[in-house]
């Protein structure tokens, strides 16, 4: 059991029969009354976010989460196929579980897959991935306003905003958490 003093960002707990992860927390000690912790919790099954106030002294139940290191193999009609690197079992994970991160998946990429009661609930990609731009408009001469960007299509099909000087066939580093361009990569 967790105590309220154990609450931190990323803590995985179980409430109301669902696994939650702590997104934000704030310890509050009012001048009058007992202290409490305001938390923002994300449901790992549905993605819904809720605000919850937890009083000091309450116990929190740890979520039955198992973490596996897996490798992305390929996509098929049912979803995306991953291989467990411990026992080499192959698992199909749907786009609903991937929740938009499938646009940054590259074959042979190693990811962390979180299971709740033997069902995959979250796929954690590396923070950054290097991808090649397959299509983007050329930068227009004279259009050099500070911070100007243009859309670029990556090799995985994802579209990100890149600076005007970036051209087709260029490799770029993308933040998988935000979907934003980070920098050009020399290859």
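^ structure tokens above, recovered residues below v
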């Amino acid at each position: 059991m967790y105590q309220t003093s154990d609450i931190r960002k990323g803590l995985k707990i179980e409430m109301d029969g669902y696994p939650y992860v702590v997104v934000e927390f704030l310890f509050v000690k009012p001048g009058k009354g007992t202290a409490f912790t305001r938390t923002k919790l994300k449901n790992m099954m549905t993605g819904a976010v809720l605000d919850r106030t937890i009083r000091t002294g309450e116990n929190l139940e740890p979520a039955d989460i198992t973490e596996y290191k897996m490798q992305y193999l390929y996509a098929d009609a049912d979803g995306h196929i991953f291989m467990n690197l411990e026992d080499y079992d192959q698992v199909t994970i749907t786009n609903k579980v991937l929740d938009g991160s499938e646009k940054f998946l590259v074959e042979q990429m190693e990811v962390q897959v979180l299971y709740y009661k033997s069902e995959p609930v979250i796929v954690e990609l590396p923070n950054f991935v290097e991808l090649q731009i397959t299509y983007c408009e050329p930068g227009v001469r004279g259009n050099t306003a500070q911070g100007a960007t243009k859309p670029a299509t990556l090799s995985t099909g994802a579209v990100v905003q890149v600076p005007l000087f970036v051209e087709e066939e260029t490799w770029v580093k993308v933040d998988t958490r935000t979907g934003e361009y980070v920098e050009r990569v020399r290859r």
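The first strand starts at residue 12 and ends at 15.
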